[in-house]
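Model it.
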Amino acid sequence: MKTIKIKQIITTLFGLLSILLISFMILSILQKPKIQNIDFINLDNVGKKVLNNSNQQVTSIENADFSYTIVGYRYGKNNSSVIVKKGSKEFVLYEGDILESTFELISISPNEIIFKGSGELYKLENKVGK
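Modeled.
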């Protein structure tokens, strides 16, 4: 008699568990995510700022209050970028971007990276991969 009651209890528990799982499955089917279209911007059509920097003096970045280090860079005719790090924060910058409201990234080349801040240009030697 005890084994029959134990079998009935186990069967009842499995039945309730299966009903619960089926109801969760039905709820997940009914609450499917809504997929929206994402429009991407063509970066070839984005204009670049041309700055006249002929009057400004280039200063070595080690003399300035600039505690960023270059982690990596991508150089090319279009969409050059640089990754700089300060402490545990990393920043990905494209030409024309402003780093923490202080330094603007002016140019990227395989040999140097130039930032502008406080009316002066700062040159940082690019030693990544060398």
